[in-house]
Design a protein that fits this description.
Layout lengths: L28 E5 L9 H6 L4 E5 L5 E7 L26 E7 L3 E2 L5 E2 L2 E9 L14 E7 L11 H12 L6 E5 L10 E5 L4 E9 L7 E9 L6
Antiparallel strand pairs: 1-2, 2-3, 3-4, 4-7, 5-6, 7-8, 8-9, 9-12, 10-11, 11-12
Amino acid sequence: MKRPMAWFSVPLALWFLAAPSHLAAAEYTLEALKESPPKEVAGDLQKALAGEGFRILDKKGKPFVDFWLRQEIPLFKPAGEKPQNITFTDIAEGSFLGVIRYHKKHYDFKDKAIPPGLYTLRNGIQPMDGDHVGVAPSRDFALLCPVSADAQLDPMSTKKLVELSVQVSGTKHPSIVFLTPMEEERASFPTLTADEEKGWQICDVRIPFAGEKDKYFRFGLVVVGVSSET
């Protein structure tokens, strides 16, 4: 059997000794985006998205990234025990979360370049392949996939998801954004918050669970921030 592909060639640590200069803490801002999802998004995915998105501006007040999230997402109830070291077990692995548009070159959580452009976002779980057992508090990530190659609304297999995401990174590793739990009470969503100790800018968002009254899938997208172990 072929061994699962490791997402990191070295152990992942979520504490930081120093952030790279291009990811130093800065004042990013969030604003509503009165714009429909881009027409490049495939039909079924397009229909699943909220009609309007939101935009993050960089420290110069220029567009950095845009997001359109799903209107709702199915609640997943896994059989058996909760998988080891996974925070977000309420959605199926490979679920479509939304789309993201980078206005300029950026860097993912592994400090690999992300070309400007439009990508789908799907949740993924870092494999337990023996190289990373016990070295990270969470295995939850969002993987970027080329919007031109992703038309599947249903959850995607890990194999296919990785195959699509490596097209973004141009390496053997997927292009990844770390997902972190958010617990602080908020008056509204989305909200942009900073973790200055780690050098992170986190977008706190939530997506309603389909058919579940007042229940949401809430997560933080680390839109700026890298692992110190790259």
